[in-house]
Amino acid sequence: MNASSFSRPGRCARCQRPVARCLCSLIPSLQATCPLLILQHHSEARHALNTGRLAYLGVQGAQLWVGEQFEDLEARLAQAQRPVLLFPGPQAQVARALAPQQRPDLIVVPDGTWRKARLILHRNPILQRLPHWVLPQGDVSRYRLRKAPDPQAVSTLEAIVRLMQLMEPERDFSALLRPFEHLIEEQIQAMGLDTYERNYPTSR
11 in a domain, yes or no? Predict the structure, then answer.
């Protein structure tokens, strides 16, 4: 299923937000050395933040596939010589800066809750054969509306930004986070600051 399958009346066809709250002016268009393939579980496609789609829109040439089992995945992986999967695993390597000729030529990122991301791996066994990468420890997630059991857990968009920053340390990919931060602030305002601070007392 392609990335445009969830367009709805009254919403921006690109960012899929209500037209009055369109995010497109905040979404950059950045080039990246490593091509990006986001495999988004279909349950994530209608999520209010949908950070996988924000990454897809902000990175030139990125692909966003929505579903659970992807028939074209094997053919897409066959086009790459050094694909990697950004997901934990027993043999996962910590991502680090590499010389240009050693960098992956495809980064595959499952997008969904941990349970749904594991389901994508289960339904697409070819992913298990890819080298697994994990991010080094970094700052706490900016996703202040989520109570994650692991303080190092980050959204899909944040993970992609951190990985790209590692791959190309001379670049600045922080502009990709602008629509994400705007959405968080919008939701905090909608719930009211008192409610936010009561439910997320350690978020600030």
Answer: no
The verdict on residue 69 lying in a domain is: yes
Query: 50 Cβ partners below 8 Å, 6+ apart?
Result: 16, 44
Tell me whether residue 8 is in a domain. Answer: no
Could you read off the pLDDT of 4-19 as tens digits, one per residue?
445 567 889 999 888 9
Residue 127: its pLDDT value, please? Answer: 97
Residue 108 DSSP SS3: strand
CA 13-16-21 angle, 5° bins: 110
Q: Residue-wise over 58-82: b if at least 16 C-beta within 10 A, else e? A: bbeebbbbbbbebeebeebbeebee
**Burial state string for 163-193 with b = 16 or more CB within 10 A and e = fewer than 16:** bbbbbbeeeebeebbbbbeebbeeebeeeee
CA angle 194-195-196, nearest 5°?
A: 90
